[in-house]
Amino acid sequence: CDNCLNAVPHDVVDVTDLAKVFLELISTIQRKPLTYLVAVLRGQKIKEIFNNGHDRLPQYGKGATLSKTDAEKMHRSLLEMEAVGDHHWSNAMGYMNSSVKLSRGSSEVFSGRKRVLIKRPKVGAHAFFELGNNLPCCSIW
């Protein structure tokens, strides 16, 4: 949680190169949710990815070393920079769908004028916050 992350020593990691790959992926794959885009970026072996041929994209697996959490942090940073946005629409049955789309700030990342940074807890760092019953409510390793 944010309380723990503020108390735990962390490193700031530059993920700009992976963010550029992620933005390229967003421009290639339209109308897919964040979870799907992250799965493609990380090279996950999911039937839907293979059925759609997205395993043959040059971006497939480029973020294999990125954890799911770090990928979500990267997305959040891109949202804050207005490099990406959310797109919502109703399908034929009336159900709402959402996907990630490029926004005006994406050109700043592509050009290198803006860097994409995320925080990652230092290896071995941990924090415990005790509740009244002496049970930890949070720990990060």
Task: Kindly report the average pLDDT value.
Answer: 86
> What is the subunit organization of this protein?
single chain
Summing up helix and strand content along with how strands pair, one would put the structural category as: alpha+beta
Query: Which band does the percent of strand residues land in?
Result: 15-25%
List SSEs in N-to-C order.
HEHHHHEEHE
Q: What is the helix content?
A: 25-40%
Coarse shape = globular
Most strands sheet: 2 strands, antiparallel
Number of strands: 4
Poorly predicted regions are: 128-141
Radius of gyration: 17 Å
- Spatially, the strands of the biggest sheet line up as 1-4
What is the helix tally?
Answer: 6
N- to C-terminal distance: 12 Å
What characteristics describe this protein?
single chain; 141 residues; alpha+beta; two-stranded antiparallel ribbon
Task: Write up what this structure looks like.
The protein has a two-stranded antiparallel sheet. Strands 2-3 form a two-stranded antiparallel sheet. It contains six helices and four strands. Mean pLDDT is 86; it is low at 128-141. It is of the alpha+beta class and 141 residues long. α2 packs across α3 (34-42) and α3 packs across α5. The radius of gyration is 17 Å and the shape is globular. The chain has helices at 2-7, 16-28, 34-42, 47-51, 68-80, 106-110, and strands spanning 10-14, 84-90, 96-102, 117-121. It starts with a helix and ends in a 20-residue tail after the last strand.
Q: What's the helix and strand layout?
A:
Blueprint: H1 2-7, E1 10-14, H2 16-28, H3 34-42, H4 47-51, H5 68-80, E2 84-90, E3 96-102, H6 106-110, E4 117-121
Antiparallel strand pairs: 1-4, 2-3
Helix pairs in contact: 2-3, 3-5
